[in-house]
Amino acid sequence: MNDFLQCCRNAIGGANVLTEAADTASYLTDQRGRFTGRALAVIKPGNTNEVAAIVKLCQQYQVPIVPQGGNTGLVLGSVPDTSGRAIVLSLTRLNRIRTVDPINNTMTVEAGCLLQQVQQAAADAGRLFPLSLAAEGSCTIGGNLSTNAGGTAVLRYGNTRELCLGLEVVTAQGDIMSSLRGLRKDNTGYALRDLFIGAEGTLGLITAAVLKLFPQPRAQVTALVALPSPEHALKLLNLAQAHCGSSLTGFELMSAFCLELVIRHFPQQRLPFEPSAQPSPHFVLLEISDSESAEHANSRFEDLIENALEEALVSDAVIATSINQSKALWQLRESISMAQAREGKNIKHDISVPISHIAEFIRVTDVLLQQAAPGCRMVTFGHLGDGNLHYNVSPPIGVTDTDFIAQQSAINRVVHDSVDRFHGSISAEHGLGALKRDEILRYKSPVELQLMRSIKQALDPDNLMNPGKVL
Length: 471
Hints:
The protein has about 475 residues and is an alpha+beta fold. The two termini are about 25 Å apart. The strands form 4 sheets. It has a 7-stranded antiparallel β-sheet with strand order 15-12-14-13-17-18-16, with helices on both faces. The chain contains 16 helices and 18 strands. The protein is globular. Helices cover about 35% and strands about 20% of the residues.
């Protein structure tokens, strides 16, 4: 492989071909620190033509490619296996905002741009790019597109696929497909864009995208409410949509144990409620974005909360009266994953079921998990408004992390089989990667799987694009 590596150095410069262990280590371990692979090299092209040149060399020498952005994925989709045959193709040097068109409400960005960078560029132009994730300071647009990321605003704006109008892609053969036209209507054949979004780099490499922008809201209002059950949360969602319509942009369900972990591990944060003799078992964080005024937004929200209290849907509520208070409420939500990590090992699930079945799914599956792992503690939170739950399982008190993780396959089977019975998906927004590649075989139909394999074979016949992921 020395000839291959030298050709890569000639193509993009020796400083961008990393082979020393000290230089490559951070690219080889997944975000949760549970798996470390090996790679022939980490290669960092600086533009689309250099990406294409590297892909052509990989075709010539039959070297597999593992594309990587911010390496924030949770399903082992952006790290290589242990064979050491593949390269990691880091796209972080492709980090330019190419154009912003506020009249067309679009922005063309490269795949290595951080999500936070894109959000700020939109804001600087007086526009909103609404994708929002806890990892927005480190995840990249290329990764968001390759996993069709969701986040907290899907209820109003949709997943990343809905926020993208066009792509630039380097194919498995090293050709460049550019459809960066920024059109909302283009009915001229197959939707090639949608093949690459959500494909986790298994069909081609996304190098740039045209993203949708939106007018900045004149006001955003946030509230945290306490309520008795997920059933009450669903009724509140229905009421909120009736009151607020499309201005309802966030509706996040959190179990009390989630926030208990946050307060335990981040004591500077606190719940904005007075202590109660009967603590609430569930909470919902709501946000509306108003195009008129702060007064109009507050009036609508106050009416909503008043009605919810009258109908006994909520037991307590706090409406943020400042930007800092709103940030503090969102910080409670965004700290759940970090708090759970500090608590110890856990078994994560990123699932979706029809919104109308979420409450029943939680009730039924909680019971099944207590039968399978008595005393397990449920960290249930997520985007109730779009049917996506992070349905995570922490070990019972007194059970070691090692002993609990040994039950992962059995616990996954309980959760995933229940998801399937409720006509849901075992991956809502994280993707399949290598972690769920075999698991999905139980739940997708043979016809779906065969169609997916046919597409893979047609676009990447040599199986060099992120092999071992998804399929």
